[in-house]
Structure formats: C-alpha cells, structure tokens
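Quick one: structure tokens for this chain, please?
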Amino acid sequence: MRIMLTGAGGFLGSRLFIYYREKYEVWAPSHKELDFTREESVRKAVQDFHPDVLLHCGAISDVGTCERDPELSMRVNVEGTRYLARACKVTGTRMIMCSSDQVYFRKMGEKESLEEYLRPHREEEHCSPVPVYGKHKLLAEAACFEEQPDSVILRLTWMYGELTEEEQRKGRRNLADMLEEMLRKGKSQSFYKTDYRGVTDVWEVVCNMETAWKLPAGIYNFGSPACGSIYEIVRDTMEEFGAEGLVEALEGSNGPRNLCMAPEKTLYAGIHFLSAQEGLEHYLKDRKNTSLSGKR
C-alpha cells in the first residue's frame, strides 16, 4: 500500500511518518520536492507516485500568521488542498484532510444562552467561524468534496505529546508539556475558564489514522469528547497528582469560546478517544514512570 503524506515536518505529520513507514510505502515529500500551491507540480507528483491514500497534514496552522497574511493562508490552506484533492480524483486516491476544531469558533448569539452556546459541536451543524484559519479550513473542506467526493475530513482538536529536541529548540509548547513542567518545578500557571475545547494525545490520532482512511466519505470530529473549559480540565487533571493548587483561573475578556466537539459519529465507526482529562492523566503518569525508570 502506498501512502503520500504532506506536512511531514509538522507535529502530527512527523509522527504519522514515523509510525506508518515501517508498515507501508510512505512518501513524505519536502517543500522542495513538492510545492502543493502549484497545481502542475501537484498533478505530476500524485500521478507519478500514484498513492492509495493521501494524508494531507500540510497547512499554515498558526492562527496569527493566517490573520496577518490571509492571502498566504488562502493559497496554502484552501487552494493547495483543492489541487491535491483534484489530483486524487484523477488517480482514484483516497483523500484524508486534516481539518480543525477552529471551524466551530463562532461568536455567541445575542439571544443565545450560555448553555446553548456551550453545547458540543456536531459535524452536521452550520459553521460560521470567526478566525481566518477557521474560515479557510472550512473552505478547504468544501474544496475536498468538490474535487474528490471520496474524501474523509478529520476535524482535529488541540494536540499534545512529548516534544523532540528539535521542537524544543524551536520553542514549541503544548498543554501536556506545560503540565509536566508545573509538576516538575512546582510552578503555578493560569488557564482560561472561558476557553472550552478538547485536547488529545497526538499518538491517539496517529494510531487511529489507519481506521480513519477506511471510513465512509464525510466529516468526522476526530479527538477527545467535550468535557469543560481548559481551566477545569487542567484543575481536574492536576488534582490526580495532588497539585490542583498550582492551577489558577483566568477570565477571558472577549467572552466564552466553545470549540468542544461531540465525537459520537467517530465512536460509532469504532474509533474511541479518551476524554481530555483521561488522556492527560495517562500521559503524565507514563512520563513520570519513564523519568523514574531513567533514574534507576
């Protein structure tokens, strides 16, 4: 089986490459080998390699960059995705697009209660995202289905996992990394009470990807189920380690933000994700045990 992977230099893509290269023939072209914003380059690359599955993780995923340079975001996140999906239709390749929970980031309605606003998002609902990144991911989803109807769209949550030395040198952080530092140094940290979203171990996403590319065409919430604000998730996680006192609350100045997803459709397809709290607890316990083992 042949797999083509874009974005192999990123957080998710690099781990997909490591995991699946031993099982399948995986081609993860660098930017020099493939600029997927150039349609002719995309067409030739896909036709020459002729993959069975194309895992599209490549994107401008920094929300701030997309806001500052929407033309770049449109070129990479929307048109690049369109070219890949179009090429996949020609070769009969299964297109798997990694989308984002940011498509659900909308403002709270004037007549909407907080309870209504905080309901977990489902795939079939109408989306009207605020950030450029969310808008462009939504357009990219539509482009996938327009060009290659046999596409699977995975709406991903915020992800975490152990960082490589290179990622650390680049200053990358994620939630689990912050919590591990809090436990190690006894350092307090503030988290927003108004930020509601899921957070998922990247290796859960990686290991479930093989099942994902066999799913019926459609959109899937692909990550931890909704379970409260980031403050609540972190507080409840740290309580397991007797360190809930390190968790401080922040109130957002712009009101609540709800990115929580309901993954029942994914669960019905046989793919199970731990809740954000369960996943973080497992991760931190594993890291603690690994650290202790290393000291022996």
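The longest strand covers residues 94-100.
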